[in-house]
Amino acid sequence: MKAVILAAGKGTRMRELTNELPKPMLPVHGRPILEHILEGLLGAGIREVCIITGWRAEVIESHFGDGSRFGARIVYARQVVQDGTGKAPEYAKDFLGGDDFLLTYGDILVKPETYRQMVARWQEQPFSGLLTVTEGEDVTKGGLNFFDDQFNLTRLVEKPSPAQLEELRATGWLKPGQPVWYNAGIYLFRPQVFEFTARLQKSPRGEYELTDAIIAMIAAGQTIAGLKIAGRWVDVRDPEVLASLQA
To answer: What is the largest CA-CA distance in the chain?
Structure first.
């Protein structure tokens, strides 16, 4: 098992904080967000990591180097054009070879044991992918997910509008009192995911969306496992969230 961390974006919502630093290098308790992620990956036995860099790439690359001082092997791939999360993982294809991999955004913080739980769930059966979810988030800002009784993914609706949510209630997909599962942005995949990212078309936002590839995988009969994240899950999306983590 290898890992790919998406860390190419500037993080414009961080305003002046990312003028000199890429968002994944902003400090939480004195260490970059990326360092916390790497620590969790190492705890799950994942020691080969590719970081997809872009904005201020040299800051990340100079800090982590080849990864040896962290007990890891780290390589880098530059995403020159910021055209969405659907194409970003493809920059790591040569690094991955035929290996399964964990994919995470470089601004998502979870408890270290989350990565171990993902690997354990992955080993239950030969899934094509695994998607993590959390509760209590505004699904209009992310992905809304539905699962069967084995907690395998049956449907994904990306950034549903209020009208779409009303339709989902009317058709029985959203039921009162049941959890609303928000896409937590950490995945496991087999290399076959690239068959689906290769066929992506740009979304109405003008980007290639990873969730569109996952939707296509479900349509093709691929089994995508779900995993509820227990405990902390933080999308370090803006200065206010970052400040709250320093307490």
So the answer is: 55
